[in-house]
Write a structure and sequence with these properties.
Beta Polymerase, domain 2, Four Helix Bundle (Hemerythrin (Met), subunit A), 6-stranded mixed sheet, 8 helices
């Protein structure tokens, strides 16, 4: 399908869903206003077939919508749903805001919430990626044009920079022992939940420097490729590894190289002193553990 045909098809799908959303809100007297946030309100996000619709219906009370959900079926045939406010692992405020995450048979996904007027007035400005689609009685405050400024990379302080450096190198201590023990599940968690987050943050600061801190790199840094060099992005992608210990070791060493280079770049540009000795010693410990025999009785 050509780009023009794709965009035309997506435009039809988008307008059909918007029509359903607004028509449903118009006919339901309980719904006083509708607003949207998320990727569809962000002009800087690439458009594709997987973008969902993040919609909020502003209502007088939420209970009726929660008790009888047949009204949701108006948006299409439901494949499956999630009820995040029913999860025992998260706190919720059902009286003021409640949501459903819905995957439809036609491919559309709708993240739908109902929210009381009071809650909407107090929180609609929390996210600048917000666009009012309907306001029957002018109950919502005026909103500025939707923008992603809240998500721009923030310039770090010296303390934040040094903390990220220290966290990266320190957590690799745990990665080293996990790899020596060949405990891949532990290694994967330690790398992706702790070490990688520091590398991602350092790379995002480099993007911030390159763009004068006026862009968002997206969730998990997924848009960083737009600003860093192609080779650097490919190097970053090569730090993801499977369940093989040897592959993991190689990826971790690549992470070390990339982090060190990026940290020096960021430190130089922001006039922060990078602790090279810390990095050198942590890297040396990693390399030592990598060569440590499996029957070793002591580390050194």
């Amino acid at each position: 399908m050509s780009i023009c045909l794709f965009e035309f098809a997506q435009s039809i799908i988008r307008h059909q869903m918007y029509h359903l959303i607004l028509a449903t809100a118009e006919r339901d007297k309980r719904v006083l206003a509708v607003y949207m946030n998320g990727s569809r309100t962000n002009v800087n996000v690439p458009k594709d077939i997987f973008q969902d619709f993040d919609i909020v219906f502003v209502v007088m009370e939420t209970a009726g919508f929660i008790y009888d959900t047949t009204w949701i079926k108006k948006f299409g045939e439901i494949l499956y749903m999630q009820y995040p406010d029913e999860s025992p692992y998260y706190t919720s405020d059902k009286e003021n805001v409640y949501g459903w995450l819905i995957q439809f048979a036609d491919g559309n996904r709708l993240d739908l919430h109902v929210e009381t007027v009071k809650h909407a007035r107090e929180h609609i400005g929390d996210d600048k990626l917000c666009k009012i689609l309907l306001d029957k009685n002018a109950i919502l405050p005026d909103m500025h044009e939707s923008m992603d400024k809240d998500y721009w990379v923030k310039k770090p302080t010296k303390e934040q920079y040094l903390c990220v450096c220290n966290e990266f190198w320190w957590c690799l201590n745990n990665v080293a022992k996990g790899l020596w023990r060949e405990e891949i599940p532990y290694v994967q968690d330690m790398v992706n939940y702790h070490v990688r987050k520091q590398l991602e943050k350092m790379l995002s600061w480099k993007v911030g420097i390159l763009t004068d801190f006026t862009v968002s790199v997206g969730k998990s840094g997924k848009y960083m490729y737009q600003w860093i060099e192609k080779k650097e992005w490919e190097t970053y992608l090569s730090t993801y590894f499977t369940g093989r210990v040897s592959e993991a070791w190689e990826a971790v060493m690549i992470m070390c190289n990339l982090f060190g280079q990026t940290a020096i770049y960021v430190g130089d540009r922001l006039e922060f002193n990078y602790n090279e000795l810390e990095g050198k010693n942590a890297r040396g410990f990693l390399e030592h553990v990598r060569q440590l025999p499996k029957n070793a009785k002591k580390i050194y």
